[in-house]
Every structure is written in structure tokens, then in C-alpha cells.
User: Which sequence fits this backbone?
């Protein structure tokens, strides 16, 4: 029987990307929402701690191995902000539109628009797993002054990928998987998983 992992995320954009990344593997990923798991607190100041928190929470409730992604946008001119607070940059309730607006306002008149996406992934085999599998990835880009494209999610319409001359919302889902912080992190995690087993 195919192994199941709960994906400890309520973000539909992430769920789509993970489905694509896992398509070739012998593992079925089930979004936590389908198993009745609600969002948990993300109280920490580091991505890795929040990812561990989310993974343990989903695994504790479902009894399944759990994979979590804690990610964000780090802007050099903003001292690395919004960083771990990217989802809540413009306050609660979370809104990509208001976050993007706030990002543009924060960078008004700013010449240095360099930024990167960061993703921390944590996989626990059970809620008290003493050896969580951990990996991360980075994707470099620049923040535009106006949105472009309909794909992706979050900050993608403002995130220019210099190597494509397109935003992360303008490239295809396959292209994004190949170069994204999430894609890079997941490929590293899968290599570790193949060493240790699930
Ligand atoms: O590829 C990406 N393309 C665009 N934006 C992205 C990306 N990756 C992370 N981001 C942004 C979205 C959100 O503002 C924050 C993640 O926050 P983060 O708490 O990890 O996710 P979330 O609250 O949306 O879902 P959940 O915690 O249920 O997985 O960084
Ligand atoms: Mg979150």
C-alpha cells in the first residue's frame, strides 16, 4: 500500500506545489484540512521552529507522518523582513493582496529591491520523533514596482526571477518547481528520506 503523509499546511498554493513535487514518488500526501486539522500557532522567531511546530501538531492529531513548510520572503533593504512574519505582514486575517500592497509601500523609493524566498521543511515520522528530517532552500529575486502574472501565490506577482525575466507568477508550475526554494528544499529532504526511510 502507498505510504501516506499528512501535509501540515492550509495554504492551497503550497498544496498544489507539493502535489506536483510528490507526483513521481510512491508517497501520497494528504492536506491536513482533509483530515480535520486546523491551523496551529506559529509562535517562534525562526522558520525551522515553526515548521517543527506545524509538523508535530498535524502528526499528533492524525497519527500519520507529517511534512510542514514554513517559508517567507526576506528583503535586504528591510533588514530581512517580512521573513518569518511574511504571512501576517499586513496583519490578521492573512491576505496576499494586503501583504503585497504593504511590501510595495515599504519599498517606495528604495533602489535596492533584492530579496529571496526561504523555505524550511520538517518531516516527522510521529509526533515525538527524536530525529525530524530537516531541509531548506533559497530562491533569489527582486521586488518589482507593479504586479505581473496570475500563477503561483503569495508574493509571486511581485517577485522577479532575473534568469527568466518573468515573475514567479508568470513562469509555469513546472518551472517554479525546478527553481523554487520549496522545490530545492524538497529534493534535499527526499534524498535524506531515501537514506533513512519513512
Ligand atoms: O513560493 C512562494 N511564492 C509566494 N509567496 C510565498 C512562497 N512561499 C512562501 N511565500 C509567502 C506566502 C506567505 O506570506 C508566507 C508563508 O507563510 P507560512 O506561514 O509558511 O504559510 P501559510 O501561513 O500561508 O500556510 P501554512 O502555515 O498553513 O503552511 O510566505
Ligand atoms: Mg502559516
Assistant:
Amino acid at each position: 500500500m502507498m505510504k501516506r503523509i499528512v501535509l501540515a499546511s492550509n495554504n492551497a498554493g503550497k498544496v498544489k506545489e507539493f502535489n506536483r513535487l510528490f507526483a513521481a514518488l510512491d508517497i501520497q500526501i494528504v492536506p491536513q484540512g482533509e483530515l480535520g486539522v486546523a491551523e496551529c500557532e506559529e509562535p517562534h522567531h525562526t522558520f525551522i521552529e515553526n515548521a517543527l511546530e506545524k509538523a508535530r501538531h498535524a502528526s499528533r492529531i492524525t497519527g500519520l507522518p507529517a511534512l510542514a513548510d514554513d517559508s517567507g520572503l526576506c528583503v535586504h533593504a528591510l533588514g530581512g523582513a517580512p521573513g518569518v512574519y511574511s504571512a501576517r505582514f499586513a496583519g490578521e486575517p492573512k491576505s496576499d493582496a494586503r501583504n503585497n500592497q504593504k511590501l510595495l509601500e515599504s519599498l517606495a523609493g528604495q533602489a535596492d529591491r533584492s530579496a529571496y524566498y526561504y523555505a524550511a521543511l520538517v518531516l516527522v515520522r510521529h509526533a515525538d520523533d527524536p530525529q525530524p528530517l530537516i531541509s531548506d532552500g533559497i530562491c533569489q529575486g527582486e521586488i518589482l514596482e507593479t504586479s505581473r502574472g496570475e500563477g503561483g501565490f503569495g508574493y509571486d506577482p511581485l517577485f522577479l526571477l532575473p534568469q527568466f525575466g518573468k515573475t514567479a507568477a508568470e513562469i509555469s508550475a513546472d518551472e517554479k518547481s525546478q527553481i523554487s526554494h520549496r522545490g530545492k528544499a524538497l529534493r534535499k529532504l527526499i534524498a535524506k528520506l531515501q537514506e533513512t526511510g519513512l
In short: Helices lie at 12-22, 47-62, 96-106, 173-179, 181-196.
